[in-house]
Write a structure and sequence with these properties.
heterodimer, A: 3 domains, eight-stranded antiparallel beta sheet, five-stranded mixed beta sheet, 24 helices, elongated, B: mainly beta, two-stranded antiparallel sheet
Chain lengths: 736, 156
């Protein structure tokens, strides 16, 4: 029960602090907000300010619990003292009884569903792993720290910054409740917008279309950030509309802050930053006003860029690694990731509309069948307000092509929903709109969704009130219903404190204090996983030797150069590179100097005499990539061998030596290819290489590739099983 | 760009090198055991042991057919043995009978025997089974219980 209480308190305090900070700001900015607009808009703009304060506290490494709690109390006290706390502003025209009852009924019933789900123990995959996992990590470290093993640590995290004070008080559920508060604020703001433009049914219809949408309910009631992003984007739009009406210059401050907060919350929402800037430029045609917006946006954006520049050598990390080369993220991972996100498991893109509205499995979540009618929104073009809604809708829709997950439609959904409602109300009046909303609400109720969706569609399934108030104990509920939680407990119970764990797939990081290195989350992890996989996957083992023979050449520097373009996602890979003279290998001398391009950081892996490690180019093989050896003095060389694997099929290499004038000269380009056998105990080579790199614990799900191979002969791997359960095993690497 | 690197410490071969031994055992306690069941093994959550019907069969995919051994751990419980009396178990691989053994007393048993290479095709589904000649039939609901299975499969 106490867990439930602290969760509510943590969320309530954070939401109150956001509102208080926002209320102070909107009062200072002389924003002429109506009473119904004050809470949602003040909350979101206050969130932008508070997020920056949390960022500063983490950057200064002073995130101690008393300070974090005090950080929430100060704006609340200040707002009360200044009189900004109370809900003030002009009243709007009262709603008709019919509209009021209609909205209350639908909003109320879905609120019960969502609120208890948000309050229940957090069991979402991403929420429990990185959204809250990083928050928990920063709290343990009392600030930011360089995380080179998790690319998610490089994403902007404007919404997650608000999870931090909530989490410090009420743990996981408090974070999810804060995100839910954004969803409520968004629905309230949409409703209020309808009333502002004199179309209350449009506001109500749009808000309910969004609020009842299954993917919105699911996402908004867990510790994700998409509904937060939607709320921020819509608030930018809303403040711009108010500014356009009253032209109060001070309003440009919250507009700029919110516009920058879009980027700070999610990179893809930068579209709204651009929109805000262009809108102000278009409507004001004044450089000074544009400069204010840009400067305030920069205040929100630059800290995140600076953090990534310092920690990841890339201000836009984890993307654009080809431009900002760094040792933490492989360029090819960008390509692999982008390739997957652009289609998930959807083979025919023409099925996407059906998938994101009705099926909901391949793209993880569904908007609801009513959104098949989304093109109706174009009828709203007849109205000025409709045209204003559809432009940001279009801008926020564009990133969907880069990530076709249904939840990536949530940021544009408020605009589309309002435009749809406006169009339907204008065509057939409010009764058709009411019928449409009612149909949507019925179709979106958990018990109805399985009647039309795909079997494993992502949606809520029931009201979790017993779980929320912890009548069913949190630990029991999670252990029985969320295997990732069980695995996290398994790690904490069996792995010594501070030891890193290598895993193929993600775990619920927020429920363990150990650092889990998930294979795809960084270059380091990927290298470690590649070593592990070399133990069992023959396609990654050195099974091919290219031998270059040439007349004796005295050379100080020799390099092996790629001359062909690799196949899709095919890298230039070298397990071992050796030099010979008269049949004897030149011993590797500590005075040698090794270079490689485009991955200079791993070049030693081609010179360590281990068949389990290899240098990889980190990019698709291309002419000009090389591995270069400077012997430090002239050596006679007449043979070079390159050991590689069969997953590097389009290999085309040549050997070059540097002549006295400093130019590279080709000395051989026609190697003999032989099939070679890796050592019979390559698994132990792999485990030893992991051990030498500080990896003593491996987590394998029973269904992971390679798991069978390990289970059936632990001795051959040099592993000891120390725990198993929840469909996974933890192995300890025995000291070689 | 980082500074050029020197060659690292050279890894040396292990003195006691041995090859990996394949083992395709279906252990009833494993979470993925049910994925291997073909027939006559009680479904449901993983458990340390499971009741079988007359011919429990599992499906495994061996990587090789060389030096394979059939392995099974099972129990003949006293409670059913009292009714059935001595039983004969036949051990099968891809429906080839490896051996039939008569058990005259209840208890825990381990059976293991080499499998002819020609019975198994590498990387193809291979059926591993054990058939009991007499089962206990429940007088109330007609449930048929053969024996208690702990693990079954092929290993090198």
């Amino acid at each position: 029960m106490w867990q439930a209480f602290w969760a509510l308190l943590g969320a309530a305090a954070t939401v109150a602090a956001c509102y208080a900070a926002g209320a102070l700001l909107v009062d200072w900015a002389r924003a002429p907000l109506k009473r119904v607009e004050r809470f949602p808009l003040a909350f979101v703009v206050g969130a932008s300010v508070l997020h920056l304060v949390v960022f500063a506290v983490l950057a200064l490494k002073i995130a101690y619990r008393p300070l974090v709690v005090g950080m929430l109390l100060i704006p609340i006290a200040w707002a009360i003292w200044k009189g900004s706390w109370r809900l003030k502003g002009d009243a709007v025209e009262p709603l008709s009884l019919g509209l009021k009852s209609f909205c209350t009924a639908i909003f109320g019933i879905f609120t019960v569903l969502y609120f208890f789900h948000a309050w229940a123990p957090e069991s979402s995959p991403d929420g429990s792993s990185y959204h809250l996992g990083l928050v928990a990590r920063y709290l343990r470290a009392h600030g930011f720290e360089q995380v080179v093993t998790n690319m998610y640590a490089n994403l902007s995290a404007g919404v997650e910054m608000l999870f931090l004070p909530a989490f410090a008080i009420g743990k996981h559920s408090a974070g999810a409740l804060v995100h839910y508060a954004f969803l409520v604020a968004l629905a309230m703001a949409m409703f209020a917008y309808g009333r502002r433009i004199g179309k209350p049914w449009t506001g109500a219809g749009g808000a309910l279309l969004l609020y009842a949408s299954p993917v919105v309910g699911m996402d908004g009631s867990i510790a994700y950030n998409d509904c937060g992003v939607a709320a921020i984007a819509f608030s930018v739009f809303y403040f711009l509309e108010i500014w356009d009406e009253v032209r109060e210059p001070r309003l440009l401050i919250p507009i700029g802050l919110l516009a920058g907060y879009c980027y700070a919350a999610k990179y893809t929402a930068v579209a709204m930053t651009i929109y805000a800037f262009l809108f102000v430029a278009w409507r004001s045609r004044k450089v000074r006003q544009c400069a204010i917006v840009a400067a305030c946006a920069a205040v929100m954006i630059l800290p995140w860029m600076a953090k990534d520049w310092i920690y990841a050598q890339n201000p836009a990390a984890p993307f654009f690694n080809k431009i900002f080369r760094n040792p933490y993220r492989r360029v090819i991972q960008d390509q692999e990731y982008a390739d997957f996100l652009s289609h998930y498991t959807v083979e025919n893109k023409w099925t996407l509309p059906l998938e994101v509205t009705v099926r909901g499995e391949k793209t993880t979540g569904l908007l609801g069948p009513v959104f098949l009618l989304a093109p109706l929104a174009f009828f709203a073009l007849r109205f000025r307000e409709g045209r204003r809604l559809l432009l940001p809708a279009l801008l926020l829709f564009l990133p969907f092509f880069a990530n076709v997950g249904t939840r990536f439609l949530i940021p544009c959904l408020p605009f589309v929903s309002l435009a749809m409602a406006m169009a339907v109300a204008s065509i057939e009046g409010t009764s058709l709109l009411a019928a449409l909303v009612l149909l949507h609400a019925v179709a979106s109720w958990p018990s109805m969704i399985p009647r039309y969706s795909a079997k494993y569609a992502w949606h809520l399934d029931r009201i979790l009130w017993k779980q929320a108030i912890r009548k069913i104990p949190q630990d029991r509920y999670l252990a029985q219903n969320f295997s990732m939680y069980g695995i996290a407990r398994l790690i904490d119970d069996n792995v010594p404190k501070g030891a890193r764990v290598l895993a193929v797939n993600g775990v619920a990081d927020s429920y363990t204090t150990h650092e889990v290195l998930v294979s795809f989350q960084s270059a380091l992890n990927d290298d470690l996983a590649d070593i592990l996989d070399a133990g069992w996957d023959e396609s990654r083992q050195p099974t091919r030797r290219l031998t270059f023979k040439f007349p004796v050449t005295p050379a100080r520097r020799v390099r092996v150069v790629e001359t062909a373009v690799g196949g899709p996602l095919e890298e230039f890979k070298v397990h071992e590179l050796r030099y010979f003279y008269q049949g004897a290998e030149l011993p590797r001398d500590p005075a040698w100097r090794l270079r490689a391009w485009p991955n200079p950081w791993d070049v030693q892996m081609a010179f360590d005499n281990s068949p389990a490690t290899r240098w990889r180019s980190w990019e698709v093989a291309a002419p000009g990539m090389y591995i270069d050896t400077d012997f430090g003095k002239f050596e006679f060389v007449d043979e070079v061998t390159v050991d590689t694997s069969f997953d590097y099929a389009n290999v085309r290499l040549q050997v070059e030596a540097m002549n006295p004038s400093g130019h590279w000269v080709k000395i051989s380009a026609d190697p003999k290819t032989d099939v070679i056998l890796p050592p019979v105990d390559i698994r132990r080579w792999a485990s030893r290489d992991l051990y030498e790199r500080g990896i003593e614990y491996i987590l394998m799900n029973d269904t992971d590739w390679g798991a069978d191979d390990m289970r059936e002969d632990l001795g051959a791997w040099g592993f000891k099983e120390i725990a198993k359960g929840y469909g996974a095993r933890i192995y300890q690497v025995v000291k070689p | 760009m980082p500074e050029p690197y020197a060659p690292p410490v050279q890894r040396q071969p292990f003195e006691d090198a041995r090859p990996h031994r394949m083992s395709r055992m279906v252990i009833m306690a494993d979470s993925d055991a049910a994925a291997h069941f073909v027939q006559d093994i009680a479904a449901g959550d993983p458990a340390p042991w499971k009741w079988t019907n007359q011919k429990p069969t599992v499906k495994v995919v061996p990587r090789t057919n060389l030096q394979l051994r059939y392995v099974i751990d099972f129990s003949l419980p006293e409670v059913t043995f009292k009714v059935t009396g001595p039983v004969t178990l036949s051990f099968l691989v891809n429906d080839h009978v490896l051996e039939s053994v008569r058990y005259k007393a209840p208890g825990e048993y381990h059976y293991e025997k080499a499998v002819p290479a020609e019975w198994v095709v590498p990387l193809k589904d291979t059926l591993v089974a054990a058939a009991i000649d007499k089962v206990w039939v429940s007088p109330t609901d007609g449930a048929r219980l053969g024996f208690i299975l702990t693990r079954i499969g092929l290993t090198q």
